[in-house]
Design a protein that fits this description.
The chain is α/β, with parallel strands linked by helices. Helix content is about 40%, strand content about 10%. It has 19 helices and 16 strands. The strands form five sheets. A seven-stranded parallel sheet has the order 7-8-6-11-12-5-13. Helix 5 crosses helix 6. The longest helix is centred in the last third of the chain and has 28 residues. The N and C termini lie far apart (about 65 Å).
């Protein structure tokens, strides 16, 4: 608040106002004052200001998040969660409805007392199962939304919900996620709770096990773990010796579940993959979103569970969550577009109130790890001369590859189409993996220092490179030859790209003809050169080799 231009017109002394002659502003040096701030403060004043600002920040932090503790009066001997957990203050102000579901009937004393499921996780399982007892006015079974962040244990809660249903003789369940790599994690979570229901790795495994008279008995029950990409694909089935038909994976899963009377779990892990859904407008929706909405409608009695830490960044992303019962028959909103329009008109506060209402109704929980004791530091490490040489050499090889590809396309008359898009995609993955590999020495050094100081180490990798590793292991080798060293993922990526993309056959209107000698020689020389490049080992293998592990 600048008051330098305000001229004093008088003062008050002993209740008497004394007149003063106006003083021109230009005659005195103006003193600039601002609210809660003094120009050119001393060091002491600076320190006081910093302390005050820190105090305000801490107060705001406490107001935004509240410490979370599960309330399970029906399971008094449940173990607390091993980490510090917080909840948004607005959600913490809303209690969950009374817990009435008999969860202890399906959970053994050993699971509860040993802490294999913490009190926090048991709370999520109990309210999900309790919600699944509700039938909506539309005739569909009510669904539940777990919005917990990383470290809370969404996978373990999913496994607990499946275990409860398994004990109650519901033996078929479908679990969707974003990657087949997570199938092993799902199997681990389920088996750790003592539930040895078979985890079927996608529809592809169902295809392999299908015989002339159908699936064997041990594949008619279990958990089908499928990716969203598989859900929108199709497969060719032989209906007889002379004919075949196209069947979508959605139809295959509906058939395996047993049709509309299916009452098992339908789990949408990382459900934000289906957020781009526009009801009654498939053209404006993604295939995944349409498939997720369709399978919910085709299995009206399924026990639907939505799981995602980032499931609702925008209210419009909730369109596929039809089982939450926020719109439709029996609600104030006839359809989702009416619900969306009402919330958007009232702004962010209304969206927050929706979350509060969802928790208060027992359809939503959202907890996360506390960062109150966390410290963050970015470490920069200079590349060694050897690493610089490898990086420069790699850049040179990719430049030569691009030049050679240009000539090869011209000589073989190969249609370019998406080839350059594949080139730059492979180029980006290569250097991303190369940079990750070059960080390993610094990571190992920091980890060993921390271990010497009795800290526990957690290392997160952007990618493990498992797909590239499997591709390398699947390459044909000379009989009797075994791998003598760790695989270099960067070398495998570059080799695979050259092998699969670099053209050698001259294209004609009738198809591939003779091979172009120049292209064949260039491809061979490139592959031989890449084989001799001193590219680093796989980061995961390198870390395990240096720090120890399985």
């Amino acid at each position: 608040m600048d008051i330098s231009s305000i001229q004093p017109i008088g003062s008050v002394k002993n209740g008497v106002k004394a007149a003063q002659s106006p003083v021109p502003v230009s005659a005195t040096k103006p003193t600039k004052r601002t609210m809660n701030r003094v120009e050119n403060p001393s060091e002491e004043q600076e320190e006081i200001s910093k302390m005050a600002a820190q105090g305000v920040a801490e107060t705001l932090s406490r107001e935004v998040f509240s410490n979370f503790s599960a309330s399970l009066p029906t399971i008094p001997h449940a173990c607390p969660h091993p980490g510090k957990i917080v909840e948004a203050a607005s959600l913490a102000a809303q209690p969950l409805p009374p817990a009435t579901y008999p969860l202890c009937d399906s959970m053994s004393e050993d699971i509860i007392k040993s802490g294999r499921l913490s009190a926090l996780q048991l709370e999520g399982i109990m309210y999900a199962c309790q919600r699944h007892q509700v039938l909506l006015a539309s005739g569909q079974r009510g669904g539940f939304f777990i919005g917990d962040g990383a470290g809370v244990g969404k996978g373990r809660q999913i496994a607990g919900i499946i275990l409860d249903n398994y004990v109650r003789n519901r033996r078929r369940h479908v679990w969707f996620s974003i990657s087949t790599d997570l199938c092993l994690d799902a199997q681990r979570d389920v088996h750790d709770l003592g539930c040895y229901l078979k985890v079927i790795n996608g529809c592809q495994q169902l295809d392999k096990e299908t015989r002339a008279f159908g699936l064997p008995s041990d594949f008619k029950e279990g958990i089908v773990f499928s990716t969203y990409a598989t859900l929108v694909s199709s497969v060719t089935k032989n209906s007889s010796a002379f004919s075949s038909k196209q069947e979508t994976r959605l139809e295959q899963l509906i058939s395996w579940c047993g049709g509309k009377d299916f009452e098992g779990c339908l789990i949408f892990d990382e459900c934000h993959k289906a957020k781009h859904y526009a009801p009654d407008n498939e053209k404006a929706s993604t295939k995944v979103a349409v498939a997720v909405a369709s399978i919910q409608r085709l299995l009206p009695r399924a026990r639907v569970l939505y799981c995602s830490a980032t499931g609702v960044t925008d209210v419009r992303d909730m369109a596929f969550m039809e089982r939450l019962g926020l719109w439709g028959p029996g609600t104030p909103f006839k359809a989702f577009d009416v619900f969306l329009d009402t919330i958007q008109k009232r702004g962010l506060g209304a969206a927050e109130m929706v979350a509060m209402e969802m928790k208060n109704s027992g359809v939503y929980v959202s907890r996360g790890l506390s960062f109150c004791d966390a410290e963050f530091e970015n470490l920069e490490r200079d590349l060694t001369s050897e690493q610089r040489a490898v990086y420069d050499h790699s850049a040179h090889v990719w430049c030569e590859l691009r030049t050679a590809l240009t000539f090869a396309f011209s000589r073989t008359h190969t249609p370019v189409k998406r080839t350059w898009s594949l080139f730059w995609s492979a180029h980006q993955r290569f250097f991303k993996q190369l940079c990750l590999s070059m960080k390993v020495p610094s990571i190992v050094k920091e980890a060993r220092t921390a271990l010497d100081d009795n800290f526990a180490i957690v290392i997160g990798l952007q990618t493990t490179g498992e797909a590239s590793l499997e591709a390398e292991l699947g390459r044909p080798t000379v009989d009797g030859v075994v791998l003598e060293d760790f695989i270099s993922l960067t070398k495998e990526m570059l080799t695979r790209f050259i092998t699969n993309i670099f053209p050698t056959q001259i294209q004609t209107e009738s198809g591939p003809a003779d091979e172009d000698p120049w292209s064949v020689q260039s491809k061979t020389m490139l592959l031989e050169h890449v084989e001799k490049m001193p590219l680093p080992r796989s980061p995961l293998d390198d870390l395990i080799d240096q720090l120890g592990g399985p």
